Request: fold
Amino acid sequence: MPEASPAPVKSADPAAPVETCPRCQKTLPLCVCAEIEPLDNRISLMVLQHPREQDQDLGTARLTVLHLKKAEFRVGLSWPSLTKALGRPVDPNRWAVLYLGSAKPSDFPTEREVVVLDQKGEPMPNQDRELSEINGVIVLDGSWSQAKTLWWRNAWLLKVKRIALNPRRPSLYGKLRKEPRREALSTLESVGVLMRELDGKPEIETALIKTFARLLHRYHAVKKAEKAAAPPRPRRRRPPARA
Ligand SMILES: [Zn+2]
Reply:
């Protein structure tokens, strides 16, 4: 997911610890998880989060997992196999990892939002068949470079199918995060597209997008309140000229 993150939400008293929600791990002013009911999904989800993914405020991986009955959340750098990561035996041929890498969505068939790629990052010839074989998806959560690290440190990811998104709508993040590419969606949005296209459940996407909109709404409200409460900034002095 995108690289740069805005400054974290602060407590009014900088010395006081900010309370976090045990369910979604957001600070209480940003917690929107009370309204989330887990939905039935046929396609399983597993999110692998890089341990240094730091965007506690706007990160959406945990929220995504809360929306689905069949979803796992793992934090770490490497796992010996898909079965070990999941904690149950599965056929890697029936799983897919969402990883764009250096592939270019402009090369993808335009009518498709989810594309199966070969080892070289090019679209596979029989998309419908490849997609129909998938019954579980892996999403790598972190910045672009963190996702790349996860990709390289887990050789078993080469044994599962590789998929990428060519989303029709840009992310709701808007300018909140610097998106190096248009296809940089939040985890909530990415999984929404996957559940609509692979699981045939647009209602899951609708629920995910609603949660994301609520989170962004809260975030803007908190930032506005912080700005209003902040004392005026002292004027910056110019650094002394070097001798
Ligand atoms: Zn919560």
